[in-house]
């Protein structure tokens, strides 16, 4: 009996040590870019970035804009988790800046838009980003990565006059493919949610709600009539590539360009930025041709 008791105590101790290790690890994650890196990225450009805040209901959404405002605007929307600086290399790209006015946002619940205060509603996420376009007095081509793809799709449905085109990058949009993992449920509750860093808590909350939000959006896809590009990697283990096929099937009234790449994973903005830049050019050209 003492032998089994020692084994039990050993296993419990091992579990607790593992739990403490994981807790320490996730609370040391920091995906943000340092101010020094941001300053360095913009230092040699002809344009200076403008950091702004705009009120949305009782919250504030933070964003950055850069470039010639007389040119076509392109607005970048990050995934879950994320922040505007996920697209730092795009906003500091001199070639893009020669042709476009660029904007990137911190979505509600992330960055300087209330990190750790999640917003589970796609409608409100889309409305908040649209408020940035209203603040800028313009429409834009929207580039959305991962969860950001669902947000920009909702924007195209709800605010068609402000959306010139869509670029869905590894987008989470098919409700049938949204699978909740067992470990996501406990950290939804206050008894366990304290274990998560603020940005992961926001991410978990909006992902838990995403399936039903996407189901509600299904009847409205037919209302999208603007140019759309769909980018997805065939070895995306986080957001299945079948999401791209879903987009193609749903966009029955839109002109769709598909870019599925066999050896590409989920992290397209970092691994294949030139592919996104190419699709921005393609969508922009299609907008001009349609005018």
Describe the overall structure:
- The protein has 291 residues and is of the alpha/beta class.
- It is 43% helix and 18% strand.
Describe the global form.
globular
Distance between the termini: 82 Å
Strand content: 15-25%
Largest sheet: 8 strands, mixed
Structural class assignment: alpha/beta
Alpha plus pi helix count:
11
> Would you count the extended β strands for me?
8
Regions with little confidence, pLDDT below 50 for 5+ residues? 12-30
Radius of gyration: 21 Å
Helix fraction bin: 40-55%
- Mean pLDDT, all residues: 89
Order of helices and strands: HHEEEHHEHEHEHHEHEHH
Strand order of the largest sheet: 1-2-4-3-5-6-7-8
Which terms would index this structure?
291 residues; 11 helices; 8-stranded mixed sheet; 8 strands
Spell out the blueprint of helices and strands.
Layout: H1 2-26, H2 35-42, E1 50-56, E2 59-66, E3 72-77, H3 88-91, H4 94-99, E4 100-105, H5 122-136, E5 140-145, H6 147-158, E6 163-169, H7 190-193, H8 198-217, E7 228-233, H9 242-250, E8 256-261, H10 268-271, H11 273-290
Parallel strand pairs: 3-4, 3-5, 5-6, 6-7, 7-8
Antiparallel strand pairs: 1-2, 2-4
Helix pairs in contact: 5-6
